[in-house]
Structures are given as C-alpha cells and as structure tokens.
Amino acid sequence: MFQKKKDKLFVTDDRLDSVAVIMDGNGRWAKRRMLPRTAGHVAGAKNVVSVLETFRKIGVHHVTLYAFSTENWKRPQEEVDALMNLIYQYLDTVVIPRIRDDGQFSVVFLGDKSPLPEKLREKCIEVEEMAKGRPFICNVALNYGGRDEILHAANRAVADGHKEITADVLSSYMYTSGSPDPDLLIRTGGDLRISNFLLWQCAYSELYFTPTLWPDFDEGEIMKAVNDFYGRKRRFGGLDKEEEQTE
Question: Which residue has the higher pLDDT, 40 or 246?
C-alpha cells in the first residue's frame, strides 16, 4: 500500500512497476470552460510531466501514455493538425530539455511513425536517440492501435521465417518488446473501455476508470488509483493461498 505523509508519497510495496494511461477528457475539460478543444489538449500536455514525476516518486519504472490512436485521424483536420503541432512543440521545448537535465529519464514511441508529419517523425527519432536504457521509461503511443500492433507483429514474425507463432515469439515483435506488461491500466474521463490500447499487453492488467478529466488528474487522483490497485488480489487465472486452503 501507499501512505501519504506531509503531502508526500511513500512506497511500501514494489509490485507496481508498469502503468498505462489513457489520457481522456481534454476536449470536455475545454468545453466546460467554454474554450476551444485545442485549449484542452494544451492543458493536458502541461499535466504530463507532473503525472510522470508522481509515478516515478512512488517507484513506477515504466509509464505508457496513449497520445494519439490510429482512429484519431478521423477527427477534424484542424484538430489533428493542432495535435501534431502540439506534440512537436512539447517534445522540442519540454521533453528534450528534461532528458538533457535528467539522467534517469528516457522516451520510447510505440506505433507506426510513417503517417506522421516529417518534422514530427524526425523529432521522435531525435528524442529516442538521446537516451536509451535509463531506469525510468515513458512509452508514448503515437499513431498506435492495439489490433494494428498485433497484425504488424505477426506479419514481421512470418516474414522472418517463423513457422509457428507462439506467445513468446509474438511478444518479441511487439512495439513494447523488452518492456513489462502494465500492472495497472488507468483511463481518465469517465468512459469504460480501453479503446484499442495495448490489447495484447493488458490481458491481465488491473483496470481503473475515473471520471476525472485528464488535465485534472493530479497526485491525489493517482493515489486513489494506486491504493485501489493495492487493495486487489491478482491471481492471473489461478487461486491465491487463502482460496487454495479452502478447496
């Protein structure tokens, strides 16, 4: 469990190592304030660093953020263009300086970069190359879809000559190869679905849904999610010791 003391978080158990987050609710956050949707995306982007710092403070080593899905291209072109520009600016003005100043932090992009604007593709590559193998990894799912990832992995495995595609083989071709599966998947914004996010990896993740909109998802909300996680029993299809004794 986690305890709060003098506004700080203290980890008392190290089971929570990997967290995935569907950052939903930016548009509704802006609408409630009678602002354009783009203002909500800007507010959401500003919240990323503080959320990452909180997770790192409580001992999480891998955080995967759903930034832009393969289905998000269906949105109005003006909003898509604004999102692409916002991501580029955020990487350039926030992420790159953070990587330079913080020797523990690195970023990996998950998804198909080829449809992205050229300058954004180049910026993603620059960010990834700056720091590899550091202890705190932020995976950014950008033009990502869970079904597409599985198909992409299977096709690569076949192209490489695998005659039998086992779970281990398929996992090795996933965008997340080498990273642990999420222990906890959080979705902000109130919707109760995972929206084609990490379908393979989240087979046994604990799911946590909150009505809190992403720009308002702060340390207190993270504590609620984490404490909820630690109140559950993870069986992975089996029984815990107490249940085995009653059989």
Answer: 40
